Amino acid sequence: MNEKLKVIDAIQAKQARVSSLRERVEQIQGERLTAERSLGEEIQLRDSLMRLSDTEVEILVMETEQLRDSLMQAFAEMQKIAESVGELEFETAEGTQIYYAGDLAGGKANGYGYGLFGTGGIYAGEWKNNKRHGKGKYTWPDGNVYVGEYRQGKREGTGTYYFTSGEKYVGEWKNNMRSGQGAMYDEDGELILSGIWKEDKVQEVVKKG
């Protein structure tokens, strides 16, 4: 009887030991899973931080490159402006000396600029290849003023000529002379006459004031 009790006690002790070992194994497995989860979370966090750092670096690099490109573009534009604006001295086909300050292209007056003529006149307006070409204003030393179109250095197109007397001509021009439809007005703005002009002379009067 005593032997049976001893055997039973031994079996129960082994069972208890097995249960204890099983609990310990389960505990170790749980700790391992927890450690693996923690390690996984740490890896994810590290990767996230590394990705965030890479993103920040990429943004910084991109912003730096954009700033560099902007500075290079600004420098190129400054050089272009420096090369496209300047001063020149040249002569007209008639031999009149001109001092010019304004837009340049191809080493010539091209664009908008100011011309001081050797005769004392001043022109402000558009230029093409060292000639007044486009819209502009020319003032003579005696005070007469022309505001209108130029072509190849001459008054041609439409424009208004203001006389120092107060009168003015409004109309068409060709080869520096009144030619085409045009009208003369007195100092009060009242119509003197309108008609067809040719080489600065009225050819046909259409209406008188």
List the helices and strands and how they pair.
Layout: H1 2-84, E1 85-91, E2 97-105, E3 108-117, E4 122-128, E5 131-139, E6 145-151, E7 154-162, E8 168-174, E9 177-185, E10 191-198, E11 201-208
Antiparallel strand pairs: 1-2, 2-3, 3-4, 4-5, 5-6, 6-7, 7-8, 8-9, 9-10, 10-11
Number of strands: 11
Q: What CATH architecture of the largest domain do you see?
A: Single Sheet
User: What is the CATH third-level topology name of the largest domain?
Assistant: Histone H3 K4-specific methyltransferase SET7/9 N-terminal domain
Overall domain count: 2
Distance between the termini: 155 Å
Major sheet attributes? 11 strands, antiparallel
Structural class: alpha+beta
Spans of at least 5 consecutive residues with low confidence: none
Number of helices: 1
Name the helicity range: 25-40%
Please give the CATH class of the largest domain: Mainly Beta
* Envelope shape: rod-shaped
Mean pLDDT: 82
Radius of gyration: 47 Å
**What is the CATH homologous superfamily assignment of the largest domain?**
Histone H3 K4-specific methyltransferase SET7/9 N-terminal domain
| Helix and strand pattern | HEEEEEEEEEEE
Beta-strand residue percentage: 35-45%
Strand line-up in the sheet with most strands:
1-2-3-4-5-6-7-8-9-10-11
Keywords: Repeat
InterPro entries: MORN
GO cellular component, one term: cytosol
Pfam families: MORN
